[in-house]
Amino acid sequence: MDYIVFAIPVFILLIAIEIIVTIVRKKDYYRFSDAINSLSAGMISITSGILTKIVSVAIYTGLFSVSALWEMSVESLWVWVLGFLFYDLCYYWTHRMGHEINVLWAAHAVHHQSEEYNLTTALRQTSSGFIFGWVFYVPMAVVGIPPVVFFTVGLINLLYQFWVHTRHVPKLGWFEWFFVTPSNHRVHHGKNRRYLDKNYGGVFILWDRLFGTFEEEDELYEPIRYGTLKPLRSWNPLWANLQLYAELWQDCRATGSWKDKLTLWFRKTGYRPSDVATPMKMPDIHAYENYQPAVVRPLIFYGAFHFVLMIIATLALMGSYHLMPMWFNTLWVAVFAVQLLVIGWLLEKTKKLVILEAGRFATVAAALGITHLQIAVPASLWWLLCTLAVVSLLALSRVQYGETPQVHLQKP
Does the keyword Kinase feature in the UniProt annotation (predicted)? Predict the structure, then answer.
């Protein structure tokens, strides 16, 4: 079982508290569809991790067993302290390269696509980081940091980073000098020229001060604009993960240079072959409105209800996948992705909503049927699904969903 499942209820509680504080303080730090999209990306990330984490586990343990230079005891406190510090240093370089190399940015950009900054942004994670992310932690295996230490301090590092994704906490005095805080991490998520590619630390901000990538937040003279220079402009969590890979592939096919076909993936972020496009210029980040297709209130309630069901289902899967065969996990990870995809579509499309939703229920029914061939599915679950589908489709058919207004440029 993945221990992150115990943290999910705490995350949800803290998000609820932040929403309440946001309302009480009359701030505009949350938008419903944006938050749902961030959480959807996070849910796809942790469920797909059921299938992909074996890559990082196998690679690290394999490298450790054949290349560790020193034998370190997990019973020694200094080994845990060294592992914690070493992991954060490796994370700094993983994170930094994730911003500086095309193919690594294609994975990491998911985390930056939200145009808001709140605790849901912390859970907005990539599903493809496992492909290259392990490379930067090889030194830890070679030095001899035991796998149990590596994976434990990695989890602690990840959990620490949750709380810094908020706009409600101001600067924290001396703490800012040594640790990553909400203030200096807000800078990291800014797309202002001043803030781009700064503050990469996970727990310690000392690495940024040491390697020259630190920038202090100046909300008075340089308010932060969140998101990416090339906005996603979609609530599709699958496209969020695939967008930049697709663009790199298009450039690879379009260029006539074999050198570029082979190297553009590992060139500096934003690089495009000269025979495909001119070098990217810094856009006016204040010249457009944030992505927000109009959604009527009944559809918001409808989407929220079904999204809560998906959270419950995700908790159930994450708490039991270690007891289930691989085919079962693979099937339901795919089904969950479809569910979140359609919920995202419901929040941005204006037509064929009932057809989309019927298709969503059909995928669940098909998956239950496949599961029933190997594992008996209780009759009560079938009745529950049928009842939910009928009631949901009838309710959705009565929603009067107006045309989505065109997003227009707003003069700065």
Answer: no
Question: Is the separation of the CB atoms in 396 and 354 below 8 Å?
Answer: yes
Q: Which residues of 151-180 are buried (b: 16+ CB within 10 A; e: fewer)?
A: bbbbebbbeebbebbbbeeeeeeeebeebb
Helix (H, G, I), strand (E, B) or coil at 272: coil
pLDDT one-digit tens code per residue, 8-37:
999 999 999 999 999 999 999 999 999 999
Instruction: Tally the residues of the chain.
Output: 412
Q: Between the CA atoms of 288, 293, 295 and 300, what dihedral angle is there, to the nearest 10 degrees?
A: -90
Is residue 403 a contact partner of residue 350, using CB atoms and an 8 Å limit? Answer: yes
- Name the one residue in this structure whose structure tokens are 């009928």: 390
Cβ atoms < 10 Å from Cβ of 262 = 10
How high is the pLDDT of residue 412? Answer: 31
Tell me which amino acid residue 67 is. Answer: S
Give this prediction's pTM. Answer: 0.93
The encoded tokens of residue 65 equal 């067993």
Q: Show the tokens assigned to 302.
A: 């409808």
- Decide if 124 contacts 193 (C-beta within 8 A): no
**DSSP structural state of residue 282:** P
Count the helix, strand and coil residues of the chain and give each as a percent rounded to the nearest 5.
Answer: 60, 0, 35
Low-confidence ranges of the chain (pLDDT < 50): 402-412
